[in-house]
Design a protein that fits this description.
5-stranded mixed sheet, single chain, globular, 431 residues, 6-stranded mixed barrel, 29 strands
Length: 431
């Protein structure tokens, strides 16, 4: 029986609270880059021991310096310290549903093109963790689960937080497609940063080469869809249409969804996708991005690249471009306290510039409403575009992605990224 391809809706998390600086700290942790603009957060180092695990692990171990995200004190009489869990965004704004096992167990997870792990809360966790409003995978209740002895996984963030556990295989169903024997990573330990969010795990949609399973990375769900011929040879792809609750009065009513194995023709709205070749050597959806526009100003950026990341809320670009963008926004300033650019909350849509980023030879604009990310206090708004620090590529997260359909088209079979502009008739600058 042929699979029924359907939209996988993104459901808004009602408990999510936007915070500009917390979202920036999350991205500092995820990509482990060094900030190049002043502020409280920076990449320091700590001495760690490297040796055997378990009892006696310090005997014969060697010390080494581990990069760790740290926070400068607000007053001179305090010492530099670790970044507390409450300083970063530990929740996600949108979640999507998938099932695992036989009979199926249902989970709400974050679909993330910036990572390649499929991990879930599980009964391997202490009961005090997995009872905190999460759906928890129980391998004992699935007749198709198989353990993978000798395999383990660990995700480490820049602040020292981590998630780790065991590995198994089971049937995973996403949008009407069932992937048989998909590797899944069951959490056995979670730092508070991971445990406090509303989601039940993560579904990574980057390339399997950056999966964290050892001793050997495992194939991603999309890679297995292709291997198992779950999706047509002509459509070895997935798409993302990242709508917004702000757009409920637009023709698409703010629809937000993913598809696997097909392109949603209604979302194309009669447009033909523009495609750019992907460089997958980093395991990410990276493409050339050699120009940007701010209103009528075109900025040449030879050699620049960008990645499309559905798991990040902000767009991060180089410092010169970031400064140029906010130079065109009346009253915008850089806030050291919030480590980012802010602008007056009373600006109108007409006072904001059209900002566009190149995708392999064609520019796609940021919706003006997405330039306004979060309330920054004192009648100021935290901007949706910020500094990428010393990263060698831009990160184009939801600030930009909400303006296109692929609204991205992640064409894994042909190693290309495609997009069409989303038609947004109204702009809502409220945060």
């Amino acid at each position: 029986m042929a699979p029924e391809f359907v939209r996988i809706k993104r459901q808004r998390n009602p408990k999510y609270q936007r915070s500009g600086v917390k979202s920036y700290v999350f991205m500092l942790n995820k990509y482990k880059f060094t900030p190049t603009r002043p502020g409280p957060y920076f990449l320091g180092s700590k001495v760690q021991q490297m040796g055997r695990h378990g009892l006696g692990r310090l005997f014969g171990s060697k010390p080494y310096l581990q990069p760790v995200l740290q926070k400068r004190p607000e007053s001179g009489d305090q010492r530099v310290g670790d970044v507390p869990a409450e300083d970063q965004q530990n929740d996600v704004e949108y979640l999507s549903t998938m099932t695992v096992g036989t009979p199926p167990q249902t989970f709400k997870v974050d679909f993330d093109t910036g990572s390649a792990d499929l991990w879930l809360f599980s009964t391997e966790l202490p009961e005090s963790v997995h009872t905190q409003s999460h759906n928890v995978f129980d391998p004992m209740k699935s007749s198709t689960f198989r353990d993978c002895p000798g395999s383990s996984w660990k995700i480490s963030y820049g602040d020292g937080s981590d998630a780790s556990g065991i590995v198994g295989t089971d049937n995973v169903t996403i949008g009407g497609l069932t992937i048989e024997g998909q590797s899944i990573q069951l959490a056995k330990t979670l730092s508070p940063q991971f445990a406090s969010g509303r989601g039940d795990g993560l579904l990574g949609l980057a390339y399997g080469s950056i999966n964290t399973v050892t001793p050997k990375p495992v194939a991603s769900p999309v890679e297995n869809m292709i291997i198992q011929s779950d999706i047509p040879k002509s459509s070895e792809l997935f798409t993302a249409y990242l709508g917004s609750y702000k757009d409920k009065d637009d023709p698409d009513h703010g629809a937000s969804f993913y598809t696997f194995g097909y392109i949603d023709e209604a979302a194309l709205a009669g447009q033909t996708p523009h495609y750019a070749p992907i460089d997958s050597s980093k395991g990410l959806w990276e493409f050339e991005s050699t120009t940007a526009s701010i209103g009528s100003i075109t900025i040449r950026r030879p050699g620049h690249t960008a990645i499309a990341d559905t798991g990040s809320t902000l767009a991060l670009v180089d410092d010169d471009l970031c400064q140029a963008i906010y130079d065109e926004i009346p009253g915008a300033i850089y806030s050291e306290r919030q480590q980012g650019y802010v602008f007056p909350s009373n600006l109108t849509v007409d006072q904001l510039p059209v900002v566009s980023f190149d995708v392999g030879g064609r520019e796609f604009a940021v919706q003006k409403e997405n330039l306004a990310f979060a309330d920054a206090g004192n009648s100021m708004t935290y901007g949706g575009i910020q500094s990428r620090g010393d990263l060698p590529f831009d990160i184009l997260g939801e600030t930009w992605l909400k303006g296109i359909y692929a609204k991205q088209i992640f064409d894994q079979g042909n190693e290309r990224f495609g997009a069409v502009m989303r038609k947004d008739l109204t702009q809502d600058l409220s945060v």
